[in-house]
Amino acid sequence: TAAQAQDGRVWTLSNDKALPDVALVYGVPNSDDAVVALRCPRGTGQITASFPVAPRLADRQENDVWVDKIGRPAPWLASVTLASGLASATLRGQAGPDDLNGGSLLSAEVATRAPMIAAFKKTGVITLSGLGETKSAPPVPLKQVRPFLSACR
User: Fold this and answer.
1) Which position among 64, 68, 85, 149 has the lowest Cβ density within 10 Å, counted as fewest Cβ atoms?
2) Residue 44 has pLDDT above 90, yes or no
């Protein structure tokens, strides 16, 4: 199901019970354009949030592996903050190359029991920040948030 159109971008819930993962993505349906993606293996209680940012940590490829300017292989450690209203969680996340947009793709894992997720469940509002950039999207319709979180738990 999809809701909240803006420049062709909508929130889409993928909750096919035949698949092991459930996803809630803000982007253009059936494309690689995703501003915010929330995914979880069904029933694990852990959500992975990912989003592209402009800063590029990847410098070059060595033996088919992306490395940064000092030669460390991807993924690289990155601080990621997830927020919903006044609740926030700053997490140890990862950055990897984002070949699609030319920057980096950030991701971090958060527990469904985190206060930030409780606030998200009530409001549908989520903001993600990392590497000096903040991504936000229109609030997720609660009719998509609740089934997503229920499937993740």
Assistant:
1) 64
2) yes
Nearest-angstrom CA–CA distance, 26 and 22: 14
| pLDDT tens digits, 94-151 | 999 998 889 999 999 999 999 999 999 999 999 999 999 999 899 999 999 999 999 9
Give me the phi and psi of 71, to 5 degrees please: 95, 10
CA angle 99, 37, 84 (to 5 degrees): 130
Asked if residue 100 lies in contact with residue 66, where contact means CB atoms within 8 angstroms, the answer is no
Site of tokens 């029933």: 43
Output the six-digit token pair for 36.
């915010």
Q: At what angle do helices 142-152 and 115-123 cross, to 10 degrees?
A: 140
Identify the DSSP state of 54: S
CA 98 to chain centre: 13
> Are the C-beta atoms of 124 and 142 separated by less than 8 Å?
yes
